[in-house]
Amino acid sequence: MTKSRISLDFDLAKPGKHAGYARLPYSVNRSAYGWLPIPVVSIKNGVGKTVLLLSGTHGDEYEGQVTLTRLALQLQAEDIQGHLIILPMANYPAAKVGHRVSPIDEGNLNRLYPGNPSGSPSERIAHFIETELMSRADFVFDLHSGGASLNYLPATTSVASTGSSAEAERRALMSTFGAPYGLLFSSAPGSGSSSEAAARNGIPRLGTELGGRGWVHPAYREICESGVLRVLALLGVTKSEGLPPPPEVRFLSVDKDCFVYAPENGLFEASAMLGDEVRVGDLAGYVYFPESPLRVPEAVHFLASGVVVCERAVAMCERGDCLLHLGKVI
Ligand SMILES: [Zn+2]
């Protein structure tokens, strides 16, 4: 297997708390021998589990980036047993400019695993994370939110495998995290996600979708931070003292028919709000056409019954944009 060309400027094996950069060689007009600096924090003490914490997989999702920046600052080596490896801006070029995908190669990091050591910068980052970091980890967090275009109710996410012991374990982790909703996504193999990368490495992975619309909701950030700390305590890496107990989690499944898409280009006004329970066929909203003022607005309907867990954060839509999505009550 070809080794990653991304190198860390400090030794991950070193005990204590260290911050530095994973250096991604990037030779361009303005910098012939330059590298892209992906921030990495390592906090290591004693013997225990190794946990990889990722945010900024999508650069416009800020709740996780703020949570991991706070934890990197607050947690000291003596607070932990084991090893935390924190990447607050996993796809650094995207996170630097606040875009979902990388501005230098259009790479969507959560579609690119297992990556490619000789590929585009985003492919190289995916390869580095999977082969150099996940390979030494016992557990991985990948913290997401709705980003600039969506807004989510606070939720943990995982992959559905109904009735399996793996799903029971995932649900137990989601209950410990304690976000109000637990979304179990049906997924097709070959999605290139961090879930698949974690599965290839034989380690559990827990994700989130917490808020969005291009800002940081302080209550959601708090849910994220206490959730991560509760799971770290469950793994024996931190102590659980002082942490509030997790609130009850409502589990929902997410399938293809949970998604409502724009049928036309226009302006969308939703008829259902986050948290509403809707039935199949209910009105989801209207797309308006101010450019053709006498055109009748187009009604959009739900294709399934469930709870509205995600909404588009901007009114302007193009055919094919996700407007709302549901979670089905399990
Ligand atoms: Zn995301």
What share of the residues does DSSP label as strand, in percent? Answer: 25-35%
Structural class: alpha+beta
CATH class of the largest domain: Alpha Beta
Query: Can you name the CATH architecture of the largest domain?
Result: 3-Layer(aba) Sandwich
The ligands found in this model are: zinc ion
- Order of SSEs, N→C? EEEEHEHHEEHEHEHEEEEEEEEE
Rounded average pLDDT: 96
Task: Describe the strand arrangement of the main beta sheet, using strand numbers.
Answer: 7-8-10-18-16
Keywords:
single chain; 330 residues; alpha+beta; Aminopeptidase; OB fold (Dihydrolipoamide Acetyltransferase, E2P); 2 domains; five-stranded mixed barrel; four-stranded antiparallel beta sheet; 21% helix; 32% strand; globular; binds zinc ion
Describe this protein's structure.
- The structure is a single chain.
- With 330 residues, the chain is α+β, with helices and mostly antiparallel strands.
- The protein folds into two domains: 7-253, 3-Layer(aba) Sandwich (Aminopeptidase); 257-329, OB fold (Dihydrolipoamide Acetyltransferase, E2P).
- 21% of the residues lie in helices and 32% in strands.
- The protein contains six helices and 18 strands.
- The chain has helices at residues 63-74, 92-97, 121-133, 165-177, 194-200, 218-234, and strands at residues 7-8, 16-25, 35-45, 50-55, 82-87, 139-144, 150-159, 181-185, 205-212, 250-254, 259-261, 266-270, 277-278, 283-288, 298-301, 306-312, 316-317, 322-329.
- The strands form two sheets. A five-stranded mixed beta barrel has the order 7-8-10-18-16.
- Helix 1 links the parallel strand 4 and strand 5 (82-87).
- Helix 1 crosses helix 6 (218-234).
- The longest helix is centred in the last third of the chain and has 17 residues, at 218-234.
- The protein is globular, with a radius of gyration of 20 Å.
- The N and C termini lie far apart (42 Å).
- The model has no long low-confidence stretch (mean pLDDT 96).
- The structure holds zinc ion.
- The site of zinc ion has 5 residues, from loops.
- Zinc ion (ZN) binds at residues 57-58, 61, 144, 147.
